[in-house]
Amino acid sequence: EVLVETERAIENKFPALKIPFLDFLTNKPILTKKITGRELKTMRRIIDTEDAPILGGAIKSRADVLITLDKEFQKLTAIDTVKLEVLSPGEFLQKYRREVN
Q1: Which of 3, 45, 48, 55 has the most crowded Cβ, counting Cβ within 10 A?
Q2: Nearest-CA neighbor of 49 among 58, 40, 57?
Q3: pTM of the complete model
Q4: DSSP strand E in the chain: where?
Q5: Which value, to the nearest 10 degrees, does the dihedral of the CA atoms of residues 5, 6, 11, 13 take?
Q6: CA distance 88 to 65
């Protein structure tokens, strides 16, 4: 679900990133199994939008951070059951730069 959503966003909003995205995929990133219907139902109780599979994928992969421009995910920071930091790309880069230096 995440790859399909990413590809759609790149094609619609960032077409210049299509080649770097494809290059990324050729390096065989670690992928989790698709979320199950039961997992999706649980995610829809947390975020009842078409983004539920994205949240499910992030949680299933045990990601520390979800990087997104989608404001719906910002609401997740107030939910105690979601142990996932939600950052915009800019916020992530600022945090990364602080931690690296």
Answers
A1: 55
A2: 40
A3: 0.69
A4: 65-67, 85-87
A5: 100
A6: 10
